[in-house]
Amino acid sequence: MNIYLHIEVSMRELDSKLLLGVIAANEGHEVLISDISEIERGTRTGLLRPGIFHTKSLTPSQNKISFHKKLIDRGFLITSLDEEAGIELESYEKFSDARYSKKTMDQSAAIFCWGNDDFKTLKKIYPKYKKKIIKTGSPRVDLWNSNFFDYWQLPNIKLKKPFLLVSSNMGASNGIKPISDVVKFYREAGYFQRVPELFNEIFEEVAESSMKTSDFVEAIKYLVDNNKNKYDIVFRPHPVEDINTWKEYLKGIPNLHIIREGSITAWVNNAFAVMHNGCTTAFETSVIGKPLLTYLPFKRKYKKNIPNKLGHQIHTLKKLSRKLDSLLKNDKLKKKSIKNKITSKLISQKIYIDKNVFASDKIVKVWENISKNKFHLSTNWTKLYLLLKIIKLKNTFVDILNKIFTGNLKSKKNWKFTPIDKNDINERVDKIKHALNLKQNIYCKIISERAILIKKSKT
To answer: How far is CA 413 from CA 372, 416, 417, 419, 432, in A?
Structure first.
């Protein structure tokens, strides 16, 4: 069976898609992991044979609806698990209004859910499609399992001391895109029609995010001045945030590392504690069992969210510093973080974790059931590789000409999907196989800068 896994933000989604790909390949399926551009090119030219197209959301934009219709007309099936998740929100209803519609639900063969909240809400709002709505959990949560602890190695960055991880979620005020571009995107995607109040909420979030930015800069300076050089701080900008903005805000602070390389999970696993405000990393930290500090210097009016109910809720700089000193001592004594009943209840409300079966395995089984063995015609991967290679060379040539005649380099860096490194991908795949104790030979080929083929090897 042909399976096409759509990635939007590689830093967030690549590892879980590799997990899905390896599990599916182990069952004999051929899997392409790619951004949307490469999949569109493959389908437009007819090179990609019909199969399962697993997308990162069912947002009812006209472009998405149109693309899905073309796929369906060519014999593809559409499935989805929303990578934005919405697990940080008190209620899933407004999120579902923005991210789903009757049309996109109708186009889908299966809609996978993170947990009880999205599962129950979607069935309530879309009862006609309740048989398509399946509570599997998320492959991203699979990777929080202790089986994958050895998978999460830090990037080749040397840190000599224990470190506090500060997970940032302030893209509203420090985003790569200006607010006007965000508003334009939401308008063109029809968000304001579906959720009219969202327009004002964008600006409310910007204001609150700016206040939070100021408070976090102050907190980092305070912690560095008062920790007596006992630990470092790793500041991790969100993928949508402009890292250069943070480098300017935090310029000159010693023992501080502003780093975006690698998955957030690797940093959570290796930190002695994690600090946040309104970040979904709070769920991950709690599930993994790392100490979590929820820093709340002011009462939030916008998005009174669930992550801020997790961990140690701290309101002052002095208490923040004292708590970190205590946690550092516990870390040196190798004491484990204890999850309380409130934390466990909040997490189970949003995230479904089956202790016996990974979400990834469940998703692959659903694909096998809905495909009914009809996607047996294999894609000519060599032709696809050559097509994407030619397109890449053509774009490079156009960029060179543009630079020669205008002095400007037209091409823009794709911050959502950074170029793939062959050795890195092969290493990740080998680690997944080891964690799952898989004995099959899995073949991995880089089709382009943003496309990976995974299938069972013939030898």
So the answer is: 40, 9, 9, 10, 29
86's enclosing H/E stretch is: none
Any idea of the CA torsion for 259, 261, 266, 272, to the nearest 10 degrees?
-10
Distances (CA, A) of 229 to 161, 226, 290, 319: 9, 8, 22, 18
- Using CA atoms, how far apart are residues 237 and 248, in angstroms rounded to an integer? 13
Residue 110 is inside which H or E element, if any? strand 108-113
Give me the pLDDT at residue 338, please.
Answer: 47
The CA distance from 432 to 7, in Å, is 18
Rounded to a whole number, what is the largest CA-CA distance in the chain?
Answer: 65
* Backbone Cα Rg of the chain: 22
Say if residue 319 is exposed, middle or buried (CB neighbours under 10 Å; 0-12, 13-18, 19+).
middle
Quick check: helix, strand or coil at residue 99? helix
pLDDT of residue 302: 62
Tokens of 103: 């049309």
Residue ranges, the chain, pLDDT below 50: 338
User: In the Cβ-directed half-sphere of 20, how many Cα atoms lie within 13 Å?
Assistant: 33
Q: Please check whether residue 16 is in contact with residue 140, taking contact to mean a CB–CB distance below 8 angstroms.
A: yes
Helix or strand or coil: residue 273? strand
| Residue 49: predicted pLDDT | 93
Domains of the chain: 2-145+353-456 (3.40.50), 154-175+206-340 (3.40.50.2000)
- The residue count of the chain comes to 459
Residue 239: the pLDDT is 86
Q: In the prediction, which pLDDT does 304 show?
A: 60
Collapsing DSSP to helix, strand or coil, 68 comes out as helix
- Tokens 């759509």 — which residue? 6
Per-residue confidence (pLDDT) for residue 419, from 0 to 100: 80
Q: Could you write out the DSSP letters of every residue in 144-184?
A: TSGGGGGG-PPPS----S-EEEEE---HHHHBSS-HHHHHH
What SS3 state is found at 32?
A: strand
User: Given the DSSP bridges, would you call strands 30-34 and 451-456 parallel, antiparallel or unpaired?
Assistant: antiparallel
Joined tokens for residue 1: 């069976």
Helix (H, G, I), strand (E, B) or coil at 377: coil
* β-sheet bridge partners, residue 234: 165, 257
Nearest to 281 by CA among 293, 264, 269: 264
CA-based nearest residue to 36, from 14, 64, 16: 64
Angle at 352 between CA 9 and CA 57, to 5 degrees: 35
